[in-house]
Amino acid sequence: MKRIISLIFLCTVLLIASLIANEHCENKIFFSGTMGFKLFAYGEEEIDNESYINTAYVELEYTPEEKEIVEEEPVNYLSINQSYINGFNLSKYDEIIISHYSPHFVIINAGNLNDFQDSINYLNDFDEITFVHIYREFRYLPKTAFEECGVFNGMDCGGPGGGGGGGYPFEGLGTVPATNGNVNLDTKIGIIELAVPYFLDSALSNTNWKIEEPFHTRTDQHATDVAKTIVNSYPETNQYVFYSTVAIYPYQLMNGINWMKSNEVSLINISMGSDSEITYDSLKRYLDYVTKQHNILIVTATTNIPNESNTNYSSAIGLSYNSLVIGSVSSSLVYEYKSGYVDAFDISKPNLVDIYTGIKSKSWGTSFSTPRVVAKIAKILYNYPFLKQKLALLLAIIHSSSSISDINVPNIVFDETGFEDKVGVGLLSVETALETIQNQNFLEFEVRNDYPYFSKLLSFSNKRKIIVTASTLASVQKNGFEYDFLGYGDPVLKIVVNGIPCATRRNGNILYASVVIPQNSVIDIQISFSGECIGAISWRVM
Prior knowledge:
The structure is a single chain. By secondary structure, the chain is α/β, with parallel strands linked by helices. It has helices at 2-24, 64-72, 77-85, 113-120, 143-148, 221-233, 250-262, 282-294, 365-383, 391-400, 430-438; strands spanning 29-35, 52-60, 95-98, 104-109, 129-138, 179-180, 187-193, 208-211, 240-246, 267-270, 275-277, 297-301, 313-315, 324-329, 352-355, 402-403, 427-428, 442-447, 453-460, 464-472, 475-479, 482-487, 492-497, 500-502, 505-507, 510-517, 521-528, 533-541. The chain folds into 3 domains: 25-138, 2-Layer Sandwich (Alpha-Beta Plaits), CATH 3.30.70; 149-436, CATH 3.40.50.200; 440-541, Sandwich (Jelly Rolls), CATH 2.60.120. The chain has 11 helices and 28 strands.
């Protein structure tokens, strides 16, 4: 009997030891795939290994004391990350990039992928490391693919265009200085791409720019053409300055936005959105957090995939409530298959559209319709800079100043509000927006739990048409290094004309209505909420 008890005790000890060992040896290193150029865009040609580099994104686990330090003074991220790196013996790798804004660093090394993975495995034993994501990154464009684009004249070739059309993050245009001209101008336009624009191009050489180092040595044509599109749409280059940075991975996108925020950039163009399964993940919640906290308007390309009702994909970067997502139409204002949309978490895409020009492939349309919208918004901010501090109001004015009446959408029936899923509220008019602001056809509101209802009465002696939009900002709370979604007030817009309610449209946290008003009428604009929210109403009388 004693022998049986001893065996049971021994087995129990071994089992506990095994569990402890397994917990200790839990794998924290993952291969997360290949980044960069998509081979299918130009055929399945063979690419040699020298065209790739290996990167490892290493997430650190800070102590409670360190978390408190960086919460109070974010500048301490760099020194704390450096202190961890000193203990990991990383001298054998080609390059180490240390984050200034979050608990991580990146290892970069050329050579064989399997050898790189083997060399990284020892990091699994460090308790200070939460996880390691290994990527194989394609960095160079094959000559054959470059030749297919033809002659670059500013907009002959597209790029990722929201991710649906391939794309080509390549080097080789040449380096540019990190700054040029007057970088202290009040109107600042951010560009986040897979590379930075080649600002020494003759079409951009008169612009003002500032580039986040060390990325100013990485240039490509797609980023260059995005900048050219803004210049072509807003040629008064003495009125604004470009702030440009590179984002290949999600953490770099967050870093780039933080860098721009520190430079007081309030308008950011992202034309490189990637197709991804719909998920409102930590990155998207971060976008909603930073946009509301700092009144930053992020304008991003939607996907270029066909608009089919059963599609399961949307723009990964664009899938956030407070971002403005742009589709595209042709120069003849014909909608085709260039503006992917889908309802996800009540976020309809796109919010509005613009014209793409000079693009050989339709699948790249949104890459260059997006900067056209950015140029328009930059003009609005230049004339009325107070809007830089009022994101909800800016969004409301943008939507009420847009029109879909001129867009030809074949075989599509508009709903009774005049809203169409594939083109949103249509084309933004700068002139209409400036007139709306000048006439003060807008109201701001901040709603608490004890004040859930807002109403505005307007009277008309003549028959008119009125466009009304209301916007609220999604709220996200920062919880350590995570971001928790709190909601956006669940707004409901009602338009009542002479006591009769009219149809309205909800597009996520944007509410819209287009109503014909009989003469001698009173219109009541009502909006109600649940919870707390910040919002605005804007209207346009036609």
